[in-house]
Design goal:
Layout: E1 2-5, H1 10-16, E2 22-26, E3 48-51, H2 53-56, E4 63-66, H3 71-79, E5 89-93, E6 116-118, H4 121-126, E7 134-136, E8 152-158, H5 162-165, H6 171-179, E9 184-188, E10 200-204, H7 208-215, E11 218-223, H8 232-240, E12 244-247, H9 252-255, E13 261-264, H10 267-279, H11 281-298, H12 301-316
Parallel strand pairs: 1-2, 1-4, 2-3, 4-5, 5-6, 6-7, 8-9, 8-11, 9-10, 11-12, 12-13
Helix pairs in contact: 8-11, 10-11
Length: about 325
């Protein structure tokens, strides 16, 4: 199958394009949001091909994977066919609802042509889709292997755009950890915008391979997001064999089992759980083993791709 999709979410797309299909990714001269093309910091197979809008109209496309509301119009303009009417399509909802939660209406609510694939059960529960068909396909991760050493008695976290996104990604909670005497290393995009603080170190835009290697050297991974579907960096840390401490919000309580770390809803619990793993390396390593086993079983690539293949086949050939 030849699938058109935009490069929107690098980690998710990295897993998705490991399948057996051919993947067409739009590219624009400025490599802006609607034409990023192939990833530069993730490892994608040769089955992912960049095409400019001028070549897409003549491309043989079997199905479109949509991830943002405006891509419906964009696909129609570039392909000359409307997704859901002239061409099979699936909409992937990566995000938790915003606005008048829990009454937030999904952009594709009420229609019957394009199924909505939620990346977590929490998202499916919260979004109002008004009868549109929905399915939950949990995340899958390309296994980076067990790399945990925990040699650095520090906490690691991954936050993209922490200054702009603020409380939703838990940027303010970093200060609390620093105040409790925890050294924190923040990985991600635009993390250099964070004000300098004692005990804080930032690592900007590392390639995925390098980031995995660095994460695994830290004693514990901290998932600080208050309102996100489910940070893929959390699942990557678990695959690496890291113990994890996560806020008990959105899908995180379902992703972090007992024994893999801690799920907390109090500030003092957050700092206390992180400090425990930093001060007890043997307990940290044991929790990391539990985390990795759970991640491989529930967020493995094989299950993820099988779930997607089933939905893609059903969408491309309704009633088969």
């Amino acid at each position: 199958m030849r699938i058109l999709l935009w490069h929107v979410h690098g980690s998710w797309t990295t897993a998705f394009v490991q399948g057996v299909h051919d993947y067409l990714v739009p590219v624009l001269p400025d490599r802006g949001p609607d034409g990023l093309g192939r990833a530069r910091t993730w490892d994608w197979p040769t089955s992912v091909v960049e095409l400019g809008p001028e070549r897409l109209r003549d491309a043989d496309v079997d199905l479109v994977v949509l991830q943002r509301p405006h891509e419906v119009e964009l696909a129609e303009r570039w392909l000359g066919r409307r997704p859901g009417r002239d061409l099979p399509a699936v909409y992937v909802e990566h995000n938790t609802p915003v606005g008048d939660v829990p009454d937030t209406r999904h952009p594709l609510a009420g229609q019957r042509e394009i199924p909505i694939a939620h990346v977590t059960g929490f998202n499916d529960l919260l979004w109002d889709t008004d009868g549109a068909r929905t399915v939950v396909i949990d995340h899958g991760i390309v296994d980076p292997g067990h790399r945990y050493t925990g040699e650095l008695a520090r906490a690691a976290t991954a936050i993209n755009d922490p200054v702009r996104r603020g409380r939703s990604v838990g940027t303010d909670l970093v200060a609390g950890l620093l105040g409790a005497g925890v050294g924190v290393d923040v990985f991600g995009m635009r993390v250099e915008q964070l004000p300098p603080r004692r005990g804080l170190a930032v690592f900007e835009d590392l390639p995925q391979e390098a980031m995995h290697a660095e994460l695994a050297r830290r004693r514990v991974y901290v998932h600080l997001s208050r309102w996100t579907s489910l940070g893929l960096s959390l699942l990557e840390a678990m695959h690496l064999g890291m113990p994890v401490v996560a806020l008990g919000t959105t899908e995180a309580p379902m992703a972090v089992p007992a024994g893999a770390g801690a799920v907390v809803t109090r500030r003092e619990q957050l700092a206390g759980a992180v400090r425990r793993f930093i001060e007890e390396p043997e307990a940290a390593a044991a929790a990391g083993q539990v985390a990795r086993r759970h991640a491989l079983e529930h967020y493995g690539l094989k299950r993820f791709l099988a779930d997607w293949d089933a939905l893609l086949a059903e969408t491309a050939e309704p009633g088969r």
